[in-house]
Amino acid sequence: MPAPTTTLLIEGTFEELVDELAQYIDNLKKTHGDETSNIQAECTQLLEEKKKDDVLKKLVTGSTVLNQAPEKEFIAAYNLLVHLIRQSPNLDVFLPRVCQNLASPVLSSPANGAGLALSILSTIFNTLQPDDESRYNVFFAILRVIRGSANFETLRPQLKHLDQWLAAWEVEEEDQRKLYLAITDVATEAGEEEQAYQYLVRALRTIPADEASTDEARQLSLRALKSALMHPTHFDFQDLTALDAIQALRSSEPIYFQLLEIFTADLVDDFNDFKDEHDGWIEKSGLDGAALNRKMRLLTLASIAASTGQTRSLPYAHIARALQIPFEDVEMWVIDVIRAGLVEGKLSQLNQTFLIHRSTYRVFGENQWREVASRLDMWRASLIGVLQVVQSEKALFLQQKEAEARELEGKIGSLAVGGGGQGRGMGGYSKQRRGDGEVDLE
Amino acid sequence: MADTDSFLHLARPLGPAPIGAQPSTAPLSVVIQPQAIFSILDHSLRRPADQERVIGTLLGTRTEDGTEVEIRNCYAVPHTETAEQVEVDMDYQKQMLALHLRANPREVLVGWYATSADLNTFSALIQNFYGQQGDGTWPHPAVHLTVSTVPGKDIEARTYISAPIGVTAERAADSCLFIPVPYEIKYGEAEKSGLELISGAKDREDRTQVILTDIESLERAIQQVLDMLERVSNYVNNVLDEEATPSSALGQFLMNALSLAPKVDPADIERDFNNHIQDVLVVSYLANTIRTQIDLSNRLATAALTMGTGDVITGTTGGGGEGGQKGGQDRRQNARRGGQQRSNEQ
């Protein structure tokens, strides 16, 4: 059962409502010094001629003044306007204009203007059919308002529906990319680097394979690559290498691509070789050398931790050598890498080793899948063992109960012959025996 | 419950704010406790045959800034609805509210529910009644919860708040805009397992369900985990046989989950386990000793008491009886102290 489509509940005919709104707009204009406005009369005339769309056009044109309406009346008046234009078959003609009006600042309420505009825009969004493509344009207007008011926090919980929406609207890949890029911009301005990066990668995914080497794709890929490299908590480069647009960099920007490959799978040594080979290139291309060094070390530590296999422990000396750091700093680096979430484990100062509980694999290949399979099998085997123990114990318990019940029946039979006093003695005896059993256990 | 509908909730309408605070348009979210839903469904089952929907009042808590509303409780409110008019028993609503607030001083009025997914102009009227100044939820928006109860279909819940619409006061009084807001039904672990048990009875002829023992539920849980493992290893094997496309994120996740077991030496585990067993045995031995001591001293005490009453028979007055009882008590205390001492020694 779909949700009710009409959430705007108002009584009254179209003509009455138009008349009220027109009068309201006229009054508002007059209080702001525009005496000539006479939308009400014009509307009445047009209504008589049954030109609904022209009436609405007048109202929408006049609605710019609503931005000066008092805070309290703003929402009510705008909702009425939305209700009216929903009656028109040519909804798409009016929406862009209304969205544009809402995107401009609300003069009467500097503090809550954005909130008010968002509230109306989301009403428009919600009253449109879920698969209506106009929602895409309304959403763009919402993004503009969000950007203007630095209000990304409000939008973020809603973004998880975005895929669903895009699928329902059936928008072109190019428009999807535009939307993703707009979100990236908003997120960047709000300081949400991680979110910005996520949407940038999504935008890259919308680039089809045959357009992967265009200039636009190249620009975008470089931007994504740089932000991935510079992001302090982003360590997974596999999602980037899988993209067509990034693969196209192999020919257009070979040095960048080489750097990406190093960060995907290689160790500190390779990075140092790279630096020697392209002396000064990192500084020239606007990347922060120190941050890259640090990231590379963390990744290297994750790699060597992942390669320990079944022993799952790393001597300090080995870490120091692989990371090219002094022996005393090993613990600091290990703590850093744990904090970055790449590895979990504990340091044993006594044995000068790092015991690894869990480590991230930078490249998840067939060997890793095999590892997963073998661990799953191990877990299953041990669980089956536990299950067998439980089942056999249960069967044993049932057997014992039955035996006891039989014994009791036998006793009752003998009691009926023997009499009461003997029975009590028997009870005492059995209790005694149970006590003995407990002592035996120890 | 059904899938969430496609809607966007970014801002709530600007309401009057308490003095000293900025009015805010921060979005709002609703949390529903299952017991409220249950009593709504119950109400819907007991409604008069000729009534399409029934309504009631929602009670719960609200955070200070009003951005999170929790629906905890509700009660039915009688109303009649015809094509032309709607009538709600306001006196009843007021009295019930007052009584409820007396019983649960922490809960406040948050809104109302209806047992049909439809919204109509009567909904708008009732919504405005609940959101009004004075008896309503003012200055916060009233929450409207609709629970669809069409037989044979899934139960769907939706939550709304409202915004005014219309430029004249008369127009605004009987109309409003319902703004859909996100909601979440929160189950606790205990509620969930209880419900699972109860719903197990629905497929049986006699509508009964045996309560599982601990060992049986353990067995069942192990079976469930085994089934899940089966599914996962199927996927992994398919990946290895190159029949399924590998997802490195999924693989990494599995690896992380499988590495959750801490790295401990088997010898360590055995040693710790044995130590633990010994501790448990010592505790149970001590407990038994103490129990025996108490048993013993109790018997001694009752034995003394019978001796005491024996004295009374031979003696003159009740004084002797008292003395005997006292002696018995003393002896009991001694015995108990002895028991304690012994346990201290061990």
Automatic annotation (TrEMBL), chain A:
Keywords: Cytoplasm, Initiation factor, Protein biosynthesis. It is found in: Cytoplasm. Residues 433-442 have a biased composition (Basic and acidic residues). Belongs to the eIF-3 subunit M family. Component of the eukaryotic translation initiation factor 3 (eIF-3) complex. GO terms for cellular component: eukaryotic 43S preinitiation complex; eukaryotic 48S preinitiation complex; eukaryotic translation initiation factor 3 complex, eIF3m. It comes from the Eukaryota. One of its GO terms (biological process) is formation of cytoplasmic translation initiation complex. It holds the Pfam family eIF3m_C_helix. This is Eukaryotic translation initiation factor 3 subunit M. Residues 192-361 form the PCI domain. InterPro entries: ARM-type_fold (IPR016024), COPS7/eIF3m (IPR045237), eIF3m (IPR027528), eIF3m_C_helix (IPR040750), PCI_dom (IPR000717). SMART domains: PINT (SM00088). It comes from Lepidopterella palustris CBS 459.81. GO terms for molecular function: translation initiation factor activity. Component of the eukaryotic translation initiation factor 3 (eIF-3) complex, which is involved in protein synthesis of a specialized repertoire of mRNAs and, together with other initiation factors, stimulates binding of mRNA and methionyl-tRNAi to the 40S ribosome. The eIF-3 complex specifically targets and initiates translation of a subset of mRNAs involved in cell proliferation. Residues 416-428 have a biased composition (Gly residues). Coiled coil: none annotated. Residues 415-442 are annotated as: Disordered.
TrEMBL record, chain B:
InterPro entries: eIF3f (IPR027531), EIF3F/CSN6-like_C (IPR024969), JAMM/MPN+_dom (IPR000555), MPN (IPR037518). Keywords: Cytoplasm, Initiation factor, Protein biosynthesis. One of its GO terms (biological process) is formation of cytoplasmic translation initiation complex. Residues 30-166 form the MPN domain. PROSITE patterns: MPN (PS50249). Residues 314-346 are annotated as: Disordered. One of its GO terms (molecular function) is metallopeptidase activity. Residues 336-346 have a biased composition (Low complexity). Residues 316-327 have a biased composition (Gly residues). It is found in: Cytoplasm. One of its GO terms (cellular component) is eukaryotic 48S preinitiation complex. Its main location: cytoplasm. It holds the Pfam family JAB. Belongs to the eIF-3 subunit F family. Component of the eukaryotic translation initiation factor 3 (eIF-3) complex, which is involved in protein synthesis of a specialized repertoire of mRNAs and, together with other initiation factors, stimulates binding of mRNA and methionyl-tRNAi to the 40S ribosome. The eIF-3 complex specifically targets and initiates translation of a subset of mRNAs involved in cell proliferation. Component of the eukaryotic translation initiation factor 3 (eIF-3) complex. This is Eukaryotic translation initiation factor 3 subunit F. It comes from Lepidopterella palustris CBS 459.81.
